[in-house]
Design brief:
Blueprint (H helix, E strand, L loop, with lengths): L1 H4 L5 H8 L3 H9 L7 E3 L6 E3 L2 H10 L22
């Protein structure tokens, strides 16, 4: 049971689970829009990943129908008025 409590999901597995690219997950994590990874083990050699509970909570916090990047406003080019 102790191993189950310390199970970590790796980046590629999380990307497949949530339907986001690895790059998007990195960007969201950096911007505070995705849970931070946890480290198991001492020092820089410890494994890093997410707990299933962290990913489940993040998914449940997303708006229904969320499919990746937040909606961005389209860029509209200025058009000269011919009148």
């Amino acid at each position: 049971m102790a191993n189950a409590a310390r199970m970590l999901l790796r980046l590629k597995d999380v990307a497949d689970m949530v339907g986001l690219s690895v790059r998007t997950i990195h960007r969201y994590e950096h911007d505070g829009m995705f849970p931070p990874r946890r480290r198991i083990g001492p020092g820089a050699n410890g494994a890093m990943g997410w707990t299933p509970e962290d990913i489940r909570a993040w998914r449940e916090s997303r708006p229904t129908g969320f499919a990746g990047s937040p909606k961005r406003q389209p860029r509209v080019a200025a058009v000269a008025d011919d009148a």
